[in-house]
């Protein structure tokens, strides 16, 4: 079982204090994990705007923020974590990613910060930038009063002929196993499949029986791929709940996650690496705008963020 030994907790967002501490402590386990609490301050306005030197205002705000972080750090230390606090200045998502790169953390966590008055839109612009570009596993936490997670869902995209997609599916499954074990939560596995071009085939002169046979064969193959992926990653199907659906992934993944009241959805976010400006797949991007639960976004091996450590 993988251990989570180092966590970066970016404390900019909306959260219930005790629920957040409980979730971080649960993920850290009992192995004496290290946690860094980070808060990012925006650059201060000019003296003409606030009547005080920007450097002095920055010093005062930094001292205030450090005290807030130390207060939370003391509670995490009661759960056995070794905690460091940091305050930086700049663009929030860039500073969080820079710290993630420098610290090489196992996991980055952050409370969600919705910038919309629409309740269904959970993630703000900083959250979305992190989900797209943070190279570390990125967990954006939905505001909640619950101190324990009950259901964790992993969305698995399978294509054995694509080595990168298969490796990413394995990572998603492994993270699901780890988090469910640490949080003592139910693990749900979701796989959505469809026959490419089915609508076109049915609209042509192709015999209906022929298309039906193709659909059945495609279903058989995807079920086999799912069985193999779970077996390969040591997941016993009798210990998880399988959700196996035919349809469009970007519609069904958020529908099933919301309908089952999942507390956390774990999914891979990138279909390809090495393409400038392409940091998240269309399906993942659509899902992130529809879910009403926390998200743990997993990047493929070899993912390179456009954010650089040096400013």
TrEMBL record:
<dbReference type="InterPro" id="IPR006016">
    <property type="entry name" value="UspA"/>
</dbReference>
<comment type="similarity">
    <text>Belongs to the universal stress protein A family.</text>
</comment>
<dbReference type="InterPro" id="IPR006015">
    <property type="entry name" value="Universal_stress_UspA"/>
</dbReference>
<feature type="domain" description="UspA">
    <location>
        <begin position="151"/>
        <end position="299"/>
    </location>
</feature>
<dbReference type="GO" id="GO:0005737">
    <property type="term" value="C:cytoplasm"/>
</dbReference>
<protein>
    <submittedName>
        <fullName>UspA domain protein</fullName>
    </submittedName>
</protein>
<comment type="function">
    <text>Required for resistance to DNA-damaging agents.</text>
</comment>
<dbReference type="Pfam" id="PF00582">
    <property type="entry name" value="Usp"/>
</dbReference>
<keyword id="KW-0963">Cytoplasm</keyword>
<feature type="domain" description="UspA">
    <location>
        <begin position="4"/>
        <end position="142"/>
    </location>
</feature>
């Amino acid at each position: 079982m993988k251990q989570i030994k180092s966590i970066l907790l970016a404390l900019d967002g909306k959260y219930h204090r005790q629920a957040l501490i409980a979730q971080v402590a649960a993920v850290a386990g009992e192995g004496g994990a290290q946690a860094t609490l980070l808060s990012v301050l925006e650059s201060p306005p000019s003296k003409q705007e606030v009547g005080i030197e920007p450097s002095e205002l920055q010093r005062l705000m930094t001292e205030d923020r450090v005290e807030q972080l130390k207060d939370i750090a003391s509670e995490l230390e009661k759960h056995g974590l070794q905690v460091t606090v940091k305050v930086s200045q700049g663009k929030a998502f860039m500073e969080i990613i820079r710290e993630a790169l420098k610290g090489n953390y196992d996991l980055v966590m952050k409370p969600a910060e919705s910038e919309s008055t629409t309740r269904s839109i959970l993630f703000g612009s900083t959250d979305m930038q992190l989900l797209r570009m943070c190279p570390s596993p990125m967990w954006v936490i939905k505001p909640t009063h619950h101190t324990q997670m009950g259901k964790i869902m992993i969305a698995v995209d399978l294509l054995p002929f694509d080595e990168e997609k298969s490796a990413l599916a394995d990572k998603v499954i492994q993270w699901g196993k780890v988090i469910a074990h640490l949080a003592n939560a139910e693990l749900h596995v979701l796989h959505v499949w469809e026959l490419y071009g089915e609508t076109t085939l049915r609209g042509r002169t192709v015999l209906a029986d022929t298309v039906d046979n193709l659909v059945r064969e495609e279903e058989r193959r995807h079920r086999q791929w799912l069985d193999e992926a779970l077996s390969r990653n040591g997941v016993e199907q009798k210990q998880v709940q399988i959700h196996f659906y035919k349809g469009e992934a970007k519609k069904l993944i958020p529908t099933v996650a919301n309908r089952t009241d999942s507390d956390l959805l774990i999914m891979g976010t990138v279909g390809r690496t090495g393409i400038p400006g392409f940091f998240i797949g269309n399906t993942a991007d659509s899902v992130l705008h529809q879910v009403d639960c926390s998200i743990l976004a997993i990047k493929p091996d070899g993912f390179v963020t456009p954010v650089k450590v040096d400013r």
